């Protein structure tokens, strides 16, 4: 859908959002480019940070490996290619999708991934394979268009996971889909196969906009699809993109009103990001189309948050809104990215983030091209393209960066769990600059109710975390660099 680039300060490394699984909204959505963030009211208060050794125990590496893990499964094919999309997607091959081969390859790679120690591929020492049954947090079937797969693919993956992992009865299993009639016909079968949450990419409610985006569904099909889906799935997320070329504030307001009237349990409301390499990018570069300027985009963002809230949808992340803000209506899978859990990514181009047996964290990158990926799975058991070790600094920056894009914010306890109890929070959080941002009503400290709960002391008060205010969330891409020490 949309993509933005994130800068990790410790390494000056940029991450394209398309390097992450679908619907990892922190990465995918266009960060609202709103008002310039100027930390106002420079505070003269002095800050003191002090670790509370008794408060948070370091996570033993064994425990870290036993933490719940999420699984992302990438289905790479689409009926047509959308003009704005920079994801790893491919037209359905001329002879049709080879479902049997794809399913075999996915299961082969999944089997490998659940016992895999990335140290081996990263040139580090070889460790024993993990014998433990890992507890699962969520499974996400994304793409591409995974609703073009067979429901059998879902049931095979889930069946295998149940046989080797601890799978909670109510575990979230999300399927992404587009509202075409072909896909809607199969929704009951996908539910029977084990999906219990549906994420539908509606994107717009007008035929002209849908054509501009290169979508292969019509507005009428979108209405029918939502209606049918609501009779089958209890948990439904609808995706919309705002900030489209030529879109006015009044037009978005009217469209959003109709979108919210569907009454889904969750909405993902993204700002359109113009991605390099897409047809849309070329059109914008040529001046053939013009996207809304920063001021209009800021107004659209504010209107989005305001209308969602008035209709009972609480913003819990920059572009994510859950009915009444309930945990059960939020995307558990996306939250696992933002909260720093391990996730295993399988399928062409899928990415993962996993701890190795020696306590090093790795990013994993699968081979992009579906045919090459399947051949690698058949010959070596997996289609791994690259394994990149993360430094502790990168892990912590990511926790801060992603945490501050959510209303829950970043927990210092979580930072200590990854870094160790002796880790001083002010090594990653610039306390003085953060205090300024707190004074400017862009961030707020989350105070601890007891010393057990605390991770740090700021200005004589016990603090366990940091979160954005509504005002701060609107400009969070400018706030975060100031927070990181
Ligand atoms: S359907 Fe989704 S993945 Fe496929 S081209 Fe369109 S936006 Fe990209």
Q: What can you see in these coordinates?
A:
The protein has 18 helices and 20 strands. The chain is α/β, with parallel strands linked by helices. The chain folds into 2 domains: about 110 residues, no CATH class; about 270 residues, TIM Barrel (Alpha-Beta Barrel). Strands 11-12-10-9-8-7-6-3-13 form a 9-stranded mixed beta sheet, with helices on both faces. Strands 17, 18, 19 and 20 form a 4-stranded antiparallel beta sheet that branches. The two termini are about 30 Å apart.
Descriptive keywords:
485 residues; alpha/beta; TIM Barrel; 2 domains; nine-stranded mixed sheet; four-stranded antiparallel sheet; 18 helices; 34% helix; globular; disordered N terminus; binds iron/sulfur cluster
Compact summary:
By secondary structure, the protein is of the alpha/beta class.
Can you list the strand order of the major beta sheet? 11-12-10-9-8-7-6-3-13
Tell me, what's the shape? globular
What class would the helix/strand composition place it in?
alpha/beta
- Terminal Cα span: 32 Å
Highest CATH level, the class of the largest domain: Alpha Beta
CATH topology of the largest domain: TIM Barrel
Gyration radius over CA:
22 Å
Query: Which stretches are poorly predicted, pLDDT < 50 over at least 5 residues?
Result: 1-59
CATH superfamily of the largest domain: Aldolase class I
How many strand units? 20
CATH architecture of the largest domain: Alpha-Beta Barrel
Q: DSSP helix count? A: 18
**Biggest sheet layout:** 9 strands, mixed
**Overall average pLDDT:** 85
Give the tally of structural domains: 2
Ligand species: iron/sulfur cluster
The percent of residues in helical segments reads 25-40%
